[in-house]
Design goal:
Blueprint (H helix, E strand, L loop, with lengths): L6 H23 L2 H23 L2 H10 L11 H20 L7 H14 L5 E9 L2 E10 L2 E2 L6 H4 L1 E2 L4
Antiparallel strand pairs: 1-2, 1-4, 2-3
């Protein structure tokens, strides 16, 4: 096989290129605002992960909570708020899928909560626990008006949420 290219490697590289092209075309179809939210989420996910490695959750949460909110950007029309919320949830999920690390539910939820807050969309970060088959499990999600945004509607039934973060 001297000098011959591995056809499997070529196929892998071609598939990766096609996937990147497809996702690149999705990126360019986004509005300027959506591109900005996507980039913020993509940068924020590893930033949150790194911050949580170095300092406590309470310090990270407190820092993000003190960041200027978008109260002045708050929308009056509930339809606009709902559309913006759905877009940001979708973009954070996309950023997590393309992240350089594997963001946990806490990383994704903190990022989503922060982005929504920056856009003037009121939401709450929830952290819940459960004991399943003798194992302790914890989970984080974001709610708006008591409805889970980045998880199933039954997440509040599956996990006992802490009150007053």
């Amino acid at each position: 096989m001297s000098g011959a290219k591995n056809p499997r490697a070529f196929g892998f590289a071609r598939d990766r290129w096609l996937r990147l092209r497809r996702h690149g075309s999705i990126f360019w179809r986004l509005s300027w605002a959506e591109r900005g939210w996507l980039m913020q989420a993509w940068l924020m996910l590893p930033g949150v992960a790194l911050a949580l490695r170095w300092v406590s959750f309470q310090r990270v949460y407190g820092f993000l909570g003190r960041w200027p909110s978008g109260v002045r950007r708050a929308l009056d029309d509930e339809g606009q708020v709902l559309a913006r919320t759905r877009a940001i949830v979708r973009l954070v999920q996309g950023a997590a899928a393309w992240s350089v690390h594997r963001p946990t539910c806490l990383h994704r939820s903190l990022t989503l909560w922060w982005l929504l807050r920056r856009q003037g969309v009121a939401s709450e970060l929830r952290i819940g626990v459960r004991k399943e088959q003798g194992r302790f499990e914890a989970h984080a999600w974001v709610e708006r008006g008591g409805v889970a945004l980045n998880d199933g509607s039954d997440v509040g039934l599956r996990f006992a949420a802490f009150q007053g973060l």
